[in-house]
Amino acid sequence: MSERAVVGLIQMNSGVEPDANLDAAETRIRAAAEQGATLVLTPEATNIVQRDGDKLRAAVKPPDADPSIPRLAALARELKIWLVAGSLMVKAEDGRVANRSHLFGPDGAVAAVYDKIHLFDVDFGDGESYAESANVRPGGAAVVAQTPWGSLGLSVCYDLRFPALYRRLAQSGASLLSAPSAFTRRTGEAHWEVLLRARAIENGAFVFAPAQGGRHEDGRATWGRSMIVGPWGEVIAKLDHDEPGVLVAEIDTAAVAAARRNIPSLGHDREFASE
User: Fold this and answer.
1) CATH number, residue 84
2) Is position 273 within any domain?
3) How many degrees, rounded to 5, is the angle at CA 260 between CA 259 and CA 266?
4) pTM to 2 decimal places
5) What pLDDT, in 10s, does the model give residues 93-113?
6) pLDDT of 2 strictly over 90
7) Residue 11 belongs to what domain range?
8) Signed CA dihedral, 71, 140, 222, 122: sign only
9) Does residue 56 have a pLDDT over 80?
10) pLDDT (tens digit, 9 = 90+) per residue, 12-34?
11) Mean pLDDT across the stretch 241-254?
C-alpha cells in the first residue's frame, strides 16, 4: 500500500444541463491530474443541480443509458487516476432518482457505487426548505472500497450529520472518507468545517470534501469551501471561496495509524442501555 497520495478536489457550480456540467467537470479533473493528482473527487450532483422534481426526473437517465458514467470511466482510464464522481443523479429502478457516488479505477472500471442514505428534508421556517426525499430514493448500505492508499468509505453530503455511518465505515476498515457535498450557504457557514473535522477526529481518518459552490441556475446557493482534513482534525488544504476551482494536496496515509495509535477510540466502543 502506498503511503503518499496526491489528492485533487473539484469544486463546481453545476447547472441544469448535464452535458455542460460534465464538460466543466472534465476540464477541472484534467487540471487536477496535470498537477499530479492520482485520486480525484468531484462534488455531489456533479451532473445536474435541479430542484424541480419533474424537470430532474425528465433530465436523468438509468445508469446503463447515462452518458456521464462511460465518459468519466474513459477519463479515469485515460488519465490513469482513481476518480470519485461524488454523486451523479441517475434514474432508479422505481422511477425515482438515485443520488449515487461512483468510484472509477484507473482501468476505467466501476470499483464501487454508493447511494446516499440520508436525504436532506429540512424547513428553516423562513421560506427556505428542501425535500430531497420527494424525488430521491434513499440507499440502504454502507460501502467501503479498496484503493492503493487504503480503504475508502463513501458518503454524500447530508450523511455528514450522521456519525454512526462514518463509525461503521471506519470500523469496516476505511482510513479515507469521501464526503462530496452541496451544502447550503446557511448550513455551510455554520457547520461545514466543524462537521468535517469532527468526522475526521472521531474516526482517525482523512476526509475529502469536494463541494458545490455559488448561485446555481435552479436558484439555490451552495457554500463551496472544498476541504481536505487530516486524521488529527487538521485542515490540510481548503478553498476559501464558493467559485469553481481545483484543490490539490499531498497526504501521508501513515498519519492514520499514528492518530489511531494515540487515540484508539475505534476499539473502545461499548454497548449501553437507555433508561
Assistant:
1) 3.60.110.10
2) no
3) 140
4) 0.98
5) 999 999 999 999 999 999 999
6) no
7) 4-263
8) positive
9) yes
10) 999 999 999 999 999 999 999 99
11) 98
pLDDT beyond 90 at 184 = yes
227-229, strands of its sheet edge to edge: 144-147, 150-154, 174-178, 206-209, 227-229, 235-238
Catalytic residues: 44, 116, 157
Secondary structure of the chain as H, E, C letters: CCCEEEEEEEEECCCCCHHHHHHHHHHHHHHHHHCCCCEEECCCCCCCCCCCHHHHHHHCCCCCCCCHHHHHHHHHHHHCCEEEEEEEEEECCCCCEEEEEEEECCCCCEEEEEECCCCCEEECCCCCEEEHHHCECCCCCCCEEEECCEEEEECCHHHHHCHHHHHHHHHCCEEEEECCECCEHHHHHHHHHHHHHHHHHHHCCEEEECEEEEECCCCCEEECCCEEECCCCCEEEECCCCCCEEEEEEEECHHHHHHHHHCCHHHCCCCCCCC
Within a domain: residue 275?
A: no
Residue 133 lies in a domain: yes
The CA distance from 237 to 272, in Å, is 38
Number of domains comprising the chain: 1
Domain membership of residue 270 (yes or no) is no
Indicate the pLDDT class of residue 275, thresholds 50, 70 and 90: confident
